[in-house]
Structure formats: structure tokens, C-alpha cells
């Protein structure tokens, strides 16, 4: 009887298996009949789905006989639902019509390059960004894009991170979100730590290298990053992301959207928490963020309200490691005070409109407001009362001129304004013209508090030992035009006028009164030509960018010696090629600077180092990137950049403590390398997909030698390094889930010891031969072999 029951069970089981049917079909565009690759097909009752391939075809396996409801959707096209019966008795072909609803791409199109724009750029979609998004900051996610070198203070890619593109640092890279400026108006920097897990709310990102096209906000002085946040999702969705990894790193994120309600409204939201102890001792990061978006969509209009926020507490590891420490303990941290932390929060609000006016016009306007406030806390050992504008303390008959102090340095700022554009396309499509611009105001309070002193003297808690304010108005207007002059030949022009008024007043942290006002007017023209021939696009352009000095240049220099603005003349020329199994880009660039601001060692009247203009400097290089699909299982990709980054002539100043009277010695240098500008940067990516659900990626990165200053001194350099990461991704689509994705990232699998960032200073001291030159280098070491493991549940 037992054998009979087992045999019967096996028979019934086998019958059930053989009764399973495959569901095949094809999705095409209505009217043209073109295959739609990437369309989503979802079988509701079976909780199974698939995505169409290059031929528009899909395959969903193992459906039991019966009736099902199928949903077919594709971005930019109307969603269709069909009832089917399995097994199918006829061919299943679905035509999707282009949706009448206004798309959101125009929100960012005014500040972006298109395929016909004669400049160098790369656009990353949501899927490409998500591949490496396990909680690390955006600079780390962009590490394998052309000419990028990323770095992390804590060494694990979470917390204070940064990137350079073509050797230009974050203060020279323009960043916008939905066309709205993100750079800090005074420092020009972007602090990614204030935007934890922002990548999870990004639909696509365009990186323009060089001056690129006109945009809003800070000057594009080497590159720009243009983010578009999540766009309309027609179907409801939910997603839970969790990841854990080395150094107690973890990320927890919940995301959901309503889909299209009443064919008009959408609501999307995300809540995230990221924590990491960091590779460096005590360099923890505790990060929180949220993102909410509500939209109205009609045939000719889109109105969106976005609100997103970030809160961070990060233990400071800004000091880095000395050369001696690097050899003994790569994880050492100079700071030991238990609350040596940075604490900051930012709230962003955006009200965005995009619409069609007739058949030839589109328009886009946005109001924005950012509220930021925070401080970093420091323990200071034996600081002089005079450094805080305080008299000496008298205890009994003893006069005490210094004591241990805990202080907080605050920044409380508001940034608000509007940006907008109008786009005209002629009936014949030959003219594409954009008129745009914006006006923004920054209002920032800088102040410092004493919250504790070992000997208090004449102090009260939260005494402000400095307090100053800055107001900056930034206005710009631009006109862009692309004209088709013949078949495949296009001319491009872009004229931008930018005006700046900057006022600052009060007492600085070194007790100097800093009252001043500066105004600038800049004209930034750009011209270019594009030629399309088959699957090739040739382009060449010339662009000009002007950039005002940063807050530090105004505050640290005497007002009658404020540095001159910087100017960049940029030439870009290259070719973009797209084939069925391959694509590649090759470009040449020349970035010719006038009055570039650099650190020379020169000090101001209170001993702070200041930047000075150098009359000439340049970057010239060749960039190559591409990908080749060897077979259905193997894909090869990569990029490489060769460059020369030079300063023909400048004067270095070195502090001299070898004499009774402090002085600085000047040294003339000729034909030296620009700091942090490697002559070779390259990446290689090998992808292997043995089956559709499983992929292995080997990602390698090489960065050549970088100099810590502008002297080309071999004793002040960062060694070249070569790192390799391994990524494993596995995706399944079980019942009741759209997908379950498992992602394992093993970073630096060969345990390379490397430092992509640092700083240096030199000075003379008394010595046997009269004086000795001492050079001190400091480094930011990155983690050895480490991992992140992520699990994503999509509903």
C-alpha cells in the first residue's frame, strides 16, 4: 500500500509537471510595428513576469492550464491588460501605443546634451545605477565611468566621499537635480553625505565632461552631473532593499508608489537608513533620508512636487594618516574625542511644471527651496583664549592664557529661487531652440559656539566667538539652438550670460572682520558641429566657462587682493558609434585655463594658506570607452583616458622656521603637473551570464600616479593603484513577487593597499647644514578586501 501511495503521488506530481505550459508572445509599437525591447509582461494570478528581448519577444515558463489576466507595460506607452487562457491556441501579439500623457524627460532636457549635441557625455539609466547601489555614496557608484577617480575619507565608501573627473574636483563640477542647482553657493562643493541613498530615487543621470552645455547654478568648470529623479510609474509597486557588509555596514530602504490613479495622479515615497563603522577607526556614519513625490499628469501638462531630506552624523576622519602611520596602522584615526562628529541636515523642496503649448512649444519651470543647518563639534587641546577673542582667565593670582575647549562650528543656510526654459521645434524639425535660465539666492549664517571649557574664564555656554553672514545672488539666462543644415549635418550654438552679487559681513573664525561685496558678469559662449553618418556621429565644439572665486578666496585674502575669476576655454572633438553588438566613443579634449586658482603655500596676514591665480595651465587628453557583446553570455566593456595636465610656470612658497624671524621662501617652478591629475585612468568590466537570471561581473580600475601638490615632486605623490571588484547578481520571479534580487559585491578582491586622496605641506627647520626641509604627507587609505550583500524584494 505504501508503495502504491508513493507511486500514485509521483504519478500525479509528474502529471502536474507535464501539464505546465509556456506562455510566449511579442510586443510591438502600434503603427510602426517596431519591436519594443524592455516591455514588461506580468501574469497576475501566477505572480510571474518577463521582459521582452531585442525582437520584442518574451517567454514565461511553467503556467498551469487556466485563465489569467496579463498586464503589458512600457515606459512612454499606454498600459494594456488582456485576459488569456493557457494553453494558448493562437499567437499572442500586443501593440502598445505611445501615451498621450506628457512625459517628464523635458524637465531636464534644457540642461542636457542629446545625441546631436557636440560635446562629450554619458547617460546612465536606472538599471545601470542600481547595479552597484548597495548603500555606498554616489561618487563610489560612478567609479567605473570614464576619467573618474573617487575617494572616501572613512575608506568604505559611506560617509564623506568625493570624486574628480579629468582631475577636476567637486567644487568645479556642476550638479543639478531636475535642472535645479545642488552645489553649495559659497564653497561650490557638493556634500554627498547629506543625501544618503539618493541614488535609489534617481531615474537617470547624465555626466557631461568638459564645459558641456549651459546649465543652472555653479560654473561647469570641468564636468557636470545632471540627475533626474524618479519618473511616472503607471502601475503600483513596492520595493524593500536590505544590505549588510564589512565594517558593520548596513542599509535598509522601503520604497512604494501608487501607480497612475484615475489616469492622472501619482504618489511615490522612499525611506532609508544607512549605517557603517567605517574602515578607519571610529569613522562611523549614521545616515537617514526620505523622498516623497506627488504628480499630476495630463495630455499636455505635468505638475510635480518633490520633497527629499537627509540627516547625517559622521565621526570625523578628515585629518587622514601621516606617512609613518600608514606603514604601521592603516585604520588609525587622529581624532579620539568621543563626539568629534559632523552633524548636518538638509531639506529640499521642488515644485516643477512641464507642458506643451501647441504643436511646436514646450515649457518647463520650477520653484525650489533648500533648508540646511548643522555643525561639527571639536575638542581643542590647550587653545589660547585670544584665539576666541577672550581675555586671559585669572584664577587666584594665576593668569591662565589657554585651556582645553570644546567648540561647535555652525552653518545655517537657505537657498531658494526658480529655473525655467522654453523649447521651440519647427514643423520640419530643422530648428530646435531653447531659451532658459534662473535666479537663485543663498543666505548663509556662519558662527561658532564654545560649549565647554576646562577653565571657563569670562565665557558662557554657547558663546559665539565668531559670527558672520553671506548673501549670494546668482542669475543666468541662456539660449541654445540646434540647426539641421543638410542631411546628417547640424550646427549648435549656446550663449549664456551669468551675473553674481556676493555680500559678506561679520567676524571670521580667526577673529578678523570680514566685510565685503563682489559682483561679476560672465559671458559663456559655445559653438559646435555634428555630423551623422549611418551608425556614427562625429562632433566638435568650442566652449568658454568663467568661474568666480569661492568663499575661502574672499574671506582668507585681503579684500584688496581678492583673486581674479578663472576662465576655461574647452575644445571637444570625437565620434560616437552604435552597432548591434557593440558601441564605442572616442574623443579628444583640450581644457585651456586662464587664472586657474591653486594652492601655492602662500599665507595671509594671520597664517592661513590662500589660493593664487596662475596665468596659464591646461589639460589635454584622449578618452576611449565602449562595450562589445561577444555572445549572449559574454560582454566586454571598459574605458581609458590618457592626459597631460600641466602648469607652465608658478611660484611655490615654503614656510621657513630656521631663522629667528618667520619668513617664507619662494621657489620658481616650470612645466609641472596639476595636483591630483593622473595621466592614465582606466576601467575594464567583464560580464558573464550563464543563464538569464545569473550574472558575474569582474570590474577593474587603474589610476596612475597623482601628485599631492603642483610641484611634480616625487616625494609628494600618491602611488598608482589597480583594484578589482567582483559582483554576483541573481534574480528570480517567484509567485507573489515581481522579482527577488540577490546582489553580492566583493570589493578590492586582491586586497590592494591604496590611497586615492591626501594632502601635503613642507617647511624649513634649523639643521646641521643651517636648515632642513621637512615634508609631511597625509593620506586617506581605502579598505582592503570587503563585501556588501544585498537583497531586494519587488512587488
TrEMBL record:
<keyword id="KW-0472">Membrane</keyword>
<protein>
    <submittedName>
        <fullName>TonB-dependent receptor</fullName>
    </submittedName>
</protein>
<keyword id="KW-0798">TonB box</keyword>
<feature type="domain" description="TonB-dependent receptor plug">
    <location>
        <begin position="117"/>
        <end position="222"/>
    </location>
</feature>
<dbReference type="InterPro" id="IPR039426">
    <property type="entry name" value="TonB-dep_rcpt-like"/>
</dbReference>
<keyword id="KW-0408">Iron</keyword>
<dbReference type="Pfam" id="PF07715">
    <property type="entry name" value="Plug"/>
</dbReference>
<dbReference type="InterPro" id="IPR037066">
    <property type="entry name" value="Plug_dom_sf"/>
</dbReference>
<dbReference type="Pfam" id="PF00593">
    <property type="entry name" value="TonB_dep_Rec_b-barrel"/>
</dbReference>
<dbReference type="InterPro" id="IPR000531">
    <property type="entry name" value="Beta-barrel_TonB"/>
</dbReference>
<dbReference type="InterPro" id="IPR012910">
    <property type="entry name" value="Plug_dom"/>
</dbReference>
<dbReference type="InterPro" id="IPR036942">
    <property type="entry name" value="Beta-barrel_TonB_sf"/>
</dbReference>
<keyword id="KW-0813">Transport</keyword>
<feature type="domain" description="TonB-dependent receptor-like beta-barrel">
    <location>
        <begin position="315"/>
        <end position="749"/>
    </location>
</feature>
<feature type="signal peptide">
    <location>
        <begin position="1"/>
        <end position="19"/>
    </location>
</feature>
<keyword id="KW-0406">Ion transport</keyword>
<keyword id="KW-0998">Cell outer membrane</keyword>
<keyword id="KW-1134">Transmembrane beta strand</keyword>
<comment type="similarity">
    <text>Belongs to the TonB-dependent receptor family.</text>
</comment>
<dbReference type="InterPro" id="IPR008969">
    <property type="entry name" value="CarboxyPept-like_regulatory"/>
</dbReference>
<keyword id="KW-0410">Iron transport</keyword>
<keyword id="KW-0675">Receptor</keyword>
<keyword id="KW-0812">Transmembrane</keyword>
<dbReference type="Pfam" id="PF13715">
    <property type="entry name" value="CarbopepD_reg_2"/>
</dbReference>
<keyword id="KW-0732">Signal</keyword>
Amino acid at each position: 500500500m505504501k508503495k502504491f501511495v508513493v507511486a500514485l503521488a509521483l504519478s500525479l506530481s509528474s502529471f502536474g509537471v507535464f501539464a505546465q505550459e509556456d506562455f510566449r508572445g511579442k510586443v510591438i509599437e502600434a503603427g510602426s510595428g517596431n519591436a519594443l525591447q524592455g516591455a514588461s509582461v506580468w501574469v497576475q494570478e501566477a505572480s510571474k513576469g518577463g521582459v521582452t528581448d531585442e525582437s520584442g519577444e518574451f517567454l514565461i515558463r511553467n503556467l498551469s492550464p487556466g485563465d489569467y489576466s496579463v498586464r503589458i507595460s512600457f515606459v512612454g506607452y499606454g498600459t494594456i491588460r488582456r485576459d488569456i487562457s493557457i494553453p494558448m491556441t493562437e499567437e499572442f501579439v500586443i501593440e502598445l501605443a505611445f501615451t498621450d500623457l506628457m512625459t517628464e524627460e523635458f524637465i531636464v532636457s534644457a540642461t542636457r546634451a542629446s545625441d546631436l549635441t557636440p560635446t562629450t557625455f554619458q547617460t546612465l539609466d536606472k538599471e545601470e545605477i542600481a547595479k552597484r547601489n548597495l548603500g555606498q555614496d554616489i561618487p563610489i557608484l560612478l567609479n567605473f565611468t570614464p576619467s573618474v577617480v573617487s575617494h572616501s575619507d572613512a575608506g568604505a565608501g559611506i560617509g564623506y566621499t568625493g570624486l574628480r573627473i579629468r582631475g577636476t574636483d567637486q567644487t568645479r563640477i556642476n550638479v543639478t537635480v531636475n535642472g535645479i542647482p545642488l552645489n553649495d553657493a559659497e564653497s561650490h562643493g557638493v556634500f554627498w553625505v547629506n543625501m544618503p541613498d539618493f541614488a535609489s530615487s534617481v531615474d537617470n543621470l547624465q555626466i557631461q565632461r568638459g564645459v558641456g552645455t549651459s546649465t543652472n547654478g555653479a560654473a561647469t568648470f570641468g564636468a557636470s552631473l545632471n540627475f533626474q529623479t524618479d519618473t511616472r510609474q503607471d502601475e503600483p509597486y513596492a520595493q524593500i532593499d536590505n544590505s549588510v557588509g564589512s565594517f558593520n555596514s548596513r542599509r535598509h530602504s522601503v520604497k512604494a508608489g501608487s501607480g497612475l490613479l484615475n489616469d492622472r495622479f501619482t504618489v511615490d515615497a522612499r525611506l532609508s537608513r544607512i549605517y557603517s563603522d567605517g574602515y578607519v577607526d571610529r569613522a562611523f556614519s549614521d545616515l537617514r533620508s526620505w523622498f516623497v513625490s506627488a504628480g499630476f499628469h495630463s495630455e499636455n501638462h505635468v505638475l510635480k512636487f518633490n520633497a527629499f531630506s537627509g540627516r547625517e552624523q559622521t565621526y570625523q576622519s578628515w585629518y587622514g594618516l601621516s606617512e609613518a602611520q600608514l606603514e604601521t596602522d592603516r585604520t588609525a584615526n587622529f581624532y579620539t574625542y568621543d563626539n568629534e562628529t559632523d552633524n548636518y541636515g538638509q531639506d529640499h523642496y521642488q515644485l516643477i511644471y512641464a507642458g506643451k503649448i501647441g504643436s511646436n512649444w514646450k515649457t518647463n519651470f520650477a520653484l525650489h527651496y533648500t533648508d540646511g543647518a548643522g555643525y561639527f563639534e571639536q575638542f581643542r587641546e590647550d587653545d589660547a583664549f585670544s584665539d576666541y577673542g577672550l581675555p586671559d582667565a585669572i584664577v587666584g593670582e594665576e593668569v591662565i592664557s589657554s585651556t582645553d575647549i570644546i567648540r561647535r562650528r555652525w552653518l545655517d543656510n537657505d537657498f531658494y529661487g526658480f529655473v525655467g526654459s522654453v523649447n521651440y521645434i519647427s514643423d520640419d524639425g530643422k530648428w530646435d531652440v531653447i531659451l532658459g535660465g534662473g535666479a537663485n539666492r543663498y543666505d548663509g549664517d556662519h558662527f561658532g559656539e564654545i560649549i565647554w571649557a576646562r577653565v571657563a574664564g569670562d565665557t558662557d555656554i554657547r558663546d559665539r566667538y565668531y559670527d558672520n553672514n553671506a548673501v549670494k545672488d546668482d542669475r543666468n539666462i541662456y539660449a541654445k539652438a540646434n540647426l539641421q543644415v543638410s542631411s546628417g549635418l547640424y550646427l549648435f550654438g549656446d550663449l549664456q550670460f551669468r551675473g553674481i552679487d556676493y555680500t559678506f559681513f561679520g567676524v571670521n573664525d580667526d577673529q578678523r572682520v570680514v566685510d565685503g561685496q563682489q559682483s561679476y558678469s560672465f559671458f559663456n559662449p559655445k559653438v559646435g558641429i555634428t555630423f551623422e553618418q549611418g551608425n556614427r556621429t562625429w562632433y566638435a565644439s568650442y566652449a568658454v566657462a568663467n568661474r568666480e572665486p569661492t568663499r575661502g578666496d574672499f574671506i582668507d585674502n585681503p579684500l584688496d587682493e581678492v583673486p581674479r575669476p578663472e576662465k576655461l576655454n574647452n575644445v571637444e572633438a570625437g565620434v560616437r558609434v552604435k552597432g548591434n553588438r557593440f558601441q564605442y566613443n572616442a574623443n579628444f579634449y583640450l581644457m585651456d585655463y586662464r587664472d586657474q586658482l591653486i594652492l601655492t603655500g602662500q599665507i595671509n596676514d594671520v597664517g592661513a594658506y590662500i589660493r593664487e591665480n596662475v596665468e596659464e595651465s591646461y589639460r589635454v587628453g584622449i578618452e576611449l570607452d565602449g562595450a562589445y557583446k561577444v555572445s549572449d553570455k559574454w560582454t566586454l566593456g571598459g574605458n581609458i583616458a590618457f592626459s597631460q595636465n600641466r602648469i607652465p610656470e608658478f611660484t611655490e612658497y615654503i614656510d621657513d622656521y630656521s631663522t629667528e624671524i618667520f619668513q617664507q621662501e619662494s621657489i620658481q617652478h616650470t612645466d609641472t603637473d596639476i595636483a591630483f591629475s593622473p595621466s592614465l585612468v582606466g576601467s575594464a568590466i567583464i560580464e558573464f551570464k550563464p543563464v538569464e537570471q545569473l550574472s558575474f561581473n569582474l570590474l577593474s580600475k587603474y589610476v596612475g600616479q597623482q601628485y599631492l601638490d603642483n610641484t611634480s615632486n616625487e616625494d609628494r605623490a600618491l602611488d598608482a593603484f589597480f583594484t578589482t571588484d567582483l559582483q554576483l547578481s541573481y534574480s528570480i520571479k517567484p509567485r507573489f513577487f515581481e522579482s527577488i534580487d540577490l546582489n553580492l559585491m566583493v570589493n578590492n578582491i586582491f586586497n590592494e593597499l591604496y590611497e586615492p586622496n591626501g594632502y601635503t605641506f613642507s617647511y624649513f627647520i634649523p639643521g646641521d647644514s643651517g636648515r632642513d626641509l621637512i615634508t609631511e604627507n597625509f593620506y586617506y587609505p581605502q579598505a582592503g578586501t570587503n563585501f556588501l550583500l544585498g537583497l531586494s524584494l519587488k512587488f
